[in-house]
Write a structure and sequence with these properties.
Length: 175
Amino acid sequence: MTTVFSLDPHISKTPGFPKEGITFYDISPALENAVVLRQLISRMAEVARRFEPDIIAGIDARGFLFAMPLALDLNCGTVMIRKAGKLPGKVLEESYALEYGTARLSLQSSRALTGKRVVLCDDLLATGGTLAAAAKLISRAGGTLSGAVCVIELTGLNGREKLPCDVVALQHYEF
C-alpha cells in the first residue's frame, strides 16, 4: 500500500550553491526530525520491498545513512560502496565523470554478492554517474541489480536513463 508522503517541507533549498545556476537540496532537516526520518525510512522500505533485495548497497557517504536502516527494515544485509582509497584489501573500482574530471567508486572484491539481488541506495540521483558506476560494481561482483532507491531525483538531468534498472525516488525536482 502506497502512503502519501512529501519530503519537500523537510528539504532545505539553497540557490547558487555550489555555484550559480545550481540549487543545493539539503536533506539535513529531514534527518533532524525523528518522525520525518521514520516516515522516510518506512517509505523507502515500502518501495524497495518490491525489488526483493538480499542486499542494500549504500553509496558513500549519504547513501550509508539510509542503507542500514533500510536493510534492517527489509531483513536483508548491506554493503558499502566507497569512494576510492577508503577500503582495505582487494577492491573492484569503477570511474565516473564529474563536472571537472573523474572520480572512482570501490567495492571490496570479497563481498559475497554472487547470485544475490542488490538494491542501490543513495540520497540523490542527478546525472546518474555515481549510481551507474555502482551498478557496474555490483555486476562485476556477481550481484544482480534489482533496483535503486533515492531520496531525491533531479529529473531534468535524466540520470535514470544511465541505469540498467528501475529507480524509485521519493522527492522530485527538475534541477
